[in-house]
Amino acid sequence: MRGQISLEFSLLFLGMIVVILIATVHPGIFGLKKTVEISSMSLAHAAVSKMKQNIELVASGDVGTTRIVYIKCPPGTWSVNNNILYFNRSGDINYNITANCDVHINLNGNTTITNLKIIIAKIVKVNQNTVNVTIYT
What is the residue extent of each domain of the chain? Predict the structure, then answer.
């Protein structure tokens, strides 16, 4: 009886193959959209965080301080309401991310990003309470 395996071992082995197959195929087929949504929101949060951090950094400097920042940005729209920075996206994936800054922000340039790209933000301190942000794509 050399070279034979028991029935229990063969069933256990086949069961393990089925479990591995289900565990790897199921999330790939049904979880792709959710994975894309989460990664896009994570990237947007990082972009808003980096923009806010650099606005605060320029605001702490002297009048005329300028900083050029490269930010990896998903598709969406940048907007400002006094000192609140917004980044939102609607359509296939919906989210709205905000950041509250200590200074008044003027936003100029191309505020609508159509696809994933690295944007250039020129941040300039105009006076004690105002920072201009110009977005180039």
Answer: 32-136
Q: What is the pLDDT of residues 64-112, one digit of tens each?
A: 999 999 999 999 999 999 899 999 988 777 888 899 988 999 999 888 9
Backbone angles phi, psi at 92, to 5 degrees: -70, -35
Residues in the chain: 137
Task: Using alpha carbons, select from 27, 28, 8 the residue that is nearest to residue 16.
Answer: 8
Structural contact between residues 131 and 106, judged by C-beta atoms closer than 8 angstroms: yes
Spell out the residues 6+ positions from residue 68 whose beta carbon is closer than 8 angstroms to its own: 120, 121, 122, 123
Integer Rg of the chain from CA: 25
User: What integer is the mean pLDDT of 4-19?
Assistant: 83
pTM here is: 0.72
Torsion of CA 23, 29, 34, 39, to 10 degrees: 80
